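Q: Please design a sequence for this.
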């Protein structure tokens, strides 16, 4: 994976980000959400393998804590370690912003993401009932946390 690189996301990247987002999720983030995150100074990052964008992530950090808001890998690139690499990068950015803990929500049906987070060391700390829109109504979110303290 020596040909991997990261670059901060900017407004001009949102079209490419949306292409991946729309392929990866039944209920993807919108252009407006990504633009708001970039404009608000969140940690918005792109992951490249060579010249090809394979993923993106968004993290907010303030007041000693961080929130992983989005972690997306192109469907055809999943299962190759890109999600873990992107997660490691975002958590390092959280540490640099002096966060002590990272929280996230994940769809209860997203077994691959849950496995990634659990294998990394995240722990389930709660559940948000009906948090996500779903094809057949609403879906619960698992709330997970990870300590950034050594």
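A: Design:
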């Amino acid at each position: 994976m020596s040909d991997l690189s990261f670059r901060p996301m900017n407004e001009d990247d949102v079209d490419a980000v949306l292409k991946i987002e729309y392929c990866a999720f039944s209920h993807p983030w919108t252009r407006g959400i990504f633009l708001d995150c970039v404009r608000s100074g969140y940690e918005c990052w792109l992951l490249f393998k060579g010249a090809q964008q394979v993923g993106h992530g968004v993290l907010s950090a303030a007041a000693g804590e961080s929130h992983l808001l989005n972690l997306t890998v192109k469907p055809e690139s999943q299962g190759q370690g890109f999600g873990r690499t992107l997660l490691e990068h975002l958590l390092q950015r959280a540490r640099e912003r002096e966060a002590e803990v990272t929280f996230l929500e994940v769809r209860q049906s997203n077994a691959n993401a849950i496995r990634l987070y659990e294998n990394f060391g995240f722990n389930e700390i709660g559940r948000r009932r009906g948090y996500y829109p779903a094809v057949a109504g609403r879906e619960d979110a698992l709330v997970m946390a990870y300590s950034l303290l050594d």
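Q: Thanks. Anything notable?
A: Helices lie at 14-24, 31-39, 82-96, 111-120. The beta strands are 4-8, 43-49, 52-62, 65-73, 101-107, 123-134, 137-147.
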